[in-house]
Amino acid sequence: MAPLLQPRLVLKGHEEIFFIDLNKVLYFLADDHYAHVYYASGYHCMVPYGLSKIETLLQEMDDDTSFMLRLSRKYIININKLQRISTVKAAIVLLDDVGNAVTLPVSKAALRENIDVLSGL
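The chain above was modelled as a monomer; its predicted structure follows.
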């Protein structure tokens, strides 16, 4: 019996191929036509894909990737890592693998737009 594979996003660069284990990702951060991938372990890398392309690839995957949420123009987050939402501070807090809080500033409009999804977890 083959081992169960975790949902992985495969991104092909010019001279590299990135295998992104989505369960280990905290969030993707937009950087023009690139994205930074921040892992719960503290590891970080940059991939040659913008968030729109990453979002499309996530939607096209056969695996369940509904835990990855496009929160704003700037972020795609792993909602399984979500610890707190602060509409007053206009921020969300994600927890990494060792319990450190990672605070991401998010516009109040983006929070309002996604509050139903986020509060229904």
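The longest strand covers residues 25-31.
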